[in-house]
Design brief:
By secondary structure, the chain is mainly beta. It is built from two helices and 14 strands; from the N terminus they run H-H-E-E-E-E-E-E-E-E-E-E-E-E-E-E. It has helices at 2-23, 34-39, and strands at residues 65-74, 82-91, 96-106, 109-122, 126-139, 144-158, 163-170, 188-198, 201-210, 216-226, 229-237, 241-250, 253-262, 266-279.
Length: 282
C-alpha cells in the first residue's frame, strides 16, 4: 500500500508542477478557496473541506484522501481579474498536508502565491492548522517585483454534534510591517460557526475583519436534496454581495460551480474540480 501511495504521489506531483508551468503565463494569484466557498459567500471558516487549503487551514485536519484540485474564478467578468488555483492534499499520520499554487492578474499586475499547509485533530473535537505562504508581486511593463512571506493559523472546535466554531488569523506577521509598508500581505481575522440543522440543511455564519476596514458579515445555506447533489447560496455585507452555486459528486470526482453578484460590479463566476486518487489511513 505504501509503495502504491508513493508511486501515485510522485506521478501526481510531477503532473502538478508541469501543469503549473503551463499556467505560468500573463495572469496571476490571490487567495481563493473553491467554488463551494464562493457559493456560500465565503462563510466557511468553521468548515472541514479540501478547499480549506485556501482558507482556514484547520479545515484540512479531517482530510483522508490523496486528492488534487483545480479552481478558477473570473472576478466581475474581467480577464484582468482572472485567478487560478491548483492544490494537492493528502492525509496520514499524524495529520494532513497540502500544497497550493495560486495566480492572479494580468501582464501589468500579477500575484503568485505558494502555500504549504499542515493540520491535525486533537481529541476528535479540536482541529488546528497552519499554512505558510510566499507571495511574489509583479507590477508594470518594467516587471518590478516584490516578495513577502507570512502564515495563516486556525482552529475548529466541535462544540456539539451539530455545531462547529472556527477561528482564523490571517497574515499576523504583517502587523510588524504595516507602518513601513514592507509587506504585500494584509492582516485579517475570521470567526464563524457551522450548524448542521439536519442531514439536508447546513447553515453557516461568519464575520471577517480586515485591518483598517469595517467587518464583513456573511451567511450561507447548503441544501442536500440527495447524496450526490448540493445547492448553495449565500449573502455578505458590506458591500452587498449575493452568491449561488451547486455541487455534483461523481464517484471520486467533485465538481462545483458558483457565481457571486456585486450590485455595482456584477457577476464573478467560479468553477472548481477535485479528484480523489485513493484513501489514506490516518
Amino acid at each position: 500500500m505504501n509503495t502504491i501511495f508513493t508511486f501515485l504521489f510522485s506521478k501526481l506531483l510531477c503532473f502538478f508542477i508541469f501543469g503549473w508551468l503551463l499556467l505560468f503565463s500573463p495572469a496571476t494569484a490571490t487567495g481563493q478557496s473553491g467554488a463551494r466557498s464562493i457559493a456560500l459567500a465565503e462563510s466557511t471558516v468553521a468548515d472541514h473541506s479540501f478547499w480549506a487549503v485556501g482558507g482556514n487551514p484547520a479545515g484540512l485536519a479531517t482530510h483522508k484522501y490523496l486528492e488534487a484540485g483545480f479552481s478558477t474564478k473570473n472576478s466581475y467578468l474581467l480577464k484582468e481579474l482572472q485567478s487560478t488555483e491548483m492544490a494537492l492534499a493528502f492525509g496520514g499520520k499524524p495529520g494532513s498536508m497540502a500544497i497550493s499554487l495560486t495566480r492572479f492578474g494580468f501582464s501589468l499586475y500579477s500575484e503568485n502565491k505558494l502555500g504549504l499547509s499542515y493540520a491535525r485533530n486533537f481529541r476528535e473535537k479540536i482541529s488546528v492548522g497552519i499554512e505558510l505562504h510566499y507571495t511574489t508581486l509583479v507590477v508594470g511593463e518594467e516587471k518590478l517585483k516584490s516578495s513577502s512571506g507570512d502564515f495563516n493559523a486556525g482552529i475548529i472546535f466541535q462544540a456539539t454534534s451539530k455545531v462547529k466554531i472556527g477561528f482564523q488569523a490571517g497574515n499576523p506577521g504583517s502587523f510588524l510591517f504595516l507602518k513601513e509598508n514592507k509587506s504585500n500581505e494584509i492582516p485579517f481575522f475570521r470567526l464563524g460557526m457551522v450548524f448542521d440543522e439536519s442531514k439536508n440543511l447546513r447553515i453557516l455564519v461568519e464575520t471577517e475583519k480586515i485591518i483598517d476596514q469595517k467587518p464583513v458579515w456573511k451567511c450561507g445555506l447548503e441544501i442536500f436534496p440527495c447524496d450526490k447533489f448540493t445547492i448553495m447560496t449565500g449573502i455578505s455585507a458590506p458591500p452587498l454581495s449575493i452568491s449561488v452555486g451547486s455541487g455534483l459528486k461523481l464517484h471520486r470526482l467533485q465538481i462545483d460551480i458558483a457565481s457571486s453578484y456585486h450590485h455595482v460590479l456584477g457577476f464573478s463566476p467560479c468553477l472548481s474540480i477535485q479528484y480523489s486518487l485513493n484513501k489514506c489511513k490516518k
